[in-house]
Amino acid sequence: MSGHYWIFRSSPSGGSSGLSRTWAGFLRDWDRSLRAGNYPQTTRYNYLLAAAQLGRYLGEHSPDPDAEDAADDPCPVTRAHVEAFQAWMIDTRSASTALNKHKGLQQFFKWLLVDEQAIDRSPMERVRQPKTPRKLIPVVCDEDTGKLLDACKGKGFANLRDEALIRLYCNTRCSAVRSRQPPRCLARLHVSCRVNRASSRAIGPAARRRAVLMECPDAEATVRAPSPSASPRR
């Protein structure tokens, strides 16, 4: 059952409930065609969900007086029906969700037009894709970076390692934006880690080799191995 059209029943929308027999029949046939084309299950699910939601919208939410025929059969669906559905998706969900439905409906009506030859023209021909707003990811400011570095203060191996990594990541950020001068918190880091007998037991040679820090213009670290005289006695 998981590879069949009725994977659709696992959705909160309730599978084929709310759809006419004609809509459900077309979706079942389309799912069979998608499975024959070896489309991934996730892709089939998203495609079928978009078409089923359009059918339910036309029957339950569409303000168009002529939506009754389209709610019974997908063939009479018009461009106005699809545009109203996209606008409803943007209002009730998001622009990115509406874009996902747009792509799914393009495939559905293409299948009706080319494979089934049930329609003479796709209602998606001149329907524009909804524009999705570009979300900018906030960049950590120098003050917050300084707080992170303050939290790493200490002479232990973990403190020195974490501080060096934070400075390295910050330097990478500066290189990405082509900053001429690095932030004040990116002063050149020189680490001298003296390992005594107690820390030698906790940090073995293999761990020290893995802890070699990458070199970059604004973040350097030198980890000094313990002298032979500092080796723990057995």
Automatic annotation (TrEMBL):
PROSITE patterns: CB (PS51900). InterPro entries: CB, DNA_brk_join_enz, Integrase_recombinase_N, Integrase_SAM-like_N. Residues 21-113 form the Core-binding (CB) domain. Keywords: DNA-binding. It comes from the Bacteria. The keyword Transferase does not apply. GO terms for biological process: DNA integration. It holds the Pfam family Phage_int_SAM_4. GO terms for molecular function: DNA binding. This is Integrase-like protein. The lineage of its organism: Bacteria, Bacillati, Actinomycetota, Actinomycetes, Micromonosporales.
